[in-house]
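User: Hey, my collaborator sent me this sequence without any context and asked if I could get a structure. I don't really work with proteins. Can you help?
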Amino acid sequence: MTTEAGDVDERRTYAVVGSTGKATTCYLLDHVLAALGRSTALFSTVEIRVGAEHTPVERDSRPDMTALLERADVARIDDTILELRWPELTAGAAGDRRIDVAVFTDLDPEVEGDDLGARLDLAADLLRRAGRAIVLVDDEAGAALARRVPGAVTVGTRSKGPDADWQLSVNASRVDHIDFTITHRTGRSVSTSLWIPTRFTAGFAALALVAVLETGITGSMIGRVLPKGMRPVVPGRIERVADHPRCVVDISHNPFRLRRALVPLRHTTRGRLVVVVAARGTDTPQTRRQIGAAAAHADSIVVTDDDYGPEDDPAAIRADVIAGAREAGARSVSEVSPRSIAIRGAVALAGRDDTVLVAGRGHLTWLRSGDTREHLDDREEVRAGIAQRDGRHAGSG
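Assistant: No problem. I've predicted the 3D structure and written it out in structure-token form, which is a compact way to encode the shape of the chain:
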């Protein structure tokens, strides 16, 4: 099969590593490669996919990467995309597999803590062994990593950041998409749109584009196969589930990710910004309060439940989140349990120009409550809330 990528039988393996944005970058990369006519396999924290076969991945599961790679090889998949977490890197889960292109997103001190240095070493080792290394240099770890990896191709998204081989510039930021350009230091550039309305996701889109461009794809090819821009569906990662009100589901389960999701949504919301938020039973009281403080970027906060074990007190967990929100100055804070009622209520009561962010679980579809495990998909609950809202408005008309 001849593809836009040119070579009939050249197969590649891509790997993505970092603290955040790995799954999003993998899906963006998959989106671009599929548009180029390439068959793809994907190993991520969201799903395992080989061609048209999909297997969902739940929280804390450890799928067999060796089996995925074997399936991709048997199916003669063109491009295999691996989201590599730190345990998998430590265990050498990719084995002797040649990584043609390795991509680094970031290393966040809040997320990595005392493991920051060790994980920088793991990332450096992976990128040095890859055929081509692509490094986002927006943070200190990225800049340090680029210095440690000879020949690394650097990507920057900040105008006052380090000098980079490819630089992203945002041309327009709209309610439903971002127009941007990536420009190489030689002057060649690619302009496109990303239909995910968060500035940080544009950086991940730039990484995905550069990873493909550095294999020989031209900017004109990208423009030809993506004439309306990049329109990926990234399950549970700033996933837009409904409009009017705009309802977004995101995996943002820690303070850093929650702030990073809320701030750009605040800038593109005409009405009120509402967040449905919770902490997990495994979170410390301090982290729970920090989650509440991060939620204070919203106009209205609905505190509910996430996973908790039989030894946990869900009311105490919610109380910690509420305390953190109020300490941060939040004025509108409510407590609603169970989670399904919290989501449906927040959506049903939202105004047409409001945004509702349902945070913490993303694509996950099973909720642990004490000794029980039940199906719960935030996206389904949002749709149920929309149905309630539409019914209420129809009744009042």
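In plain terms: DSSP finds 13 helices and 19 strands in the chain. You can pass these tokens on to your collaborator as they are.
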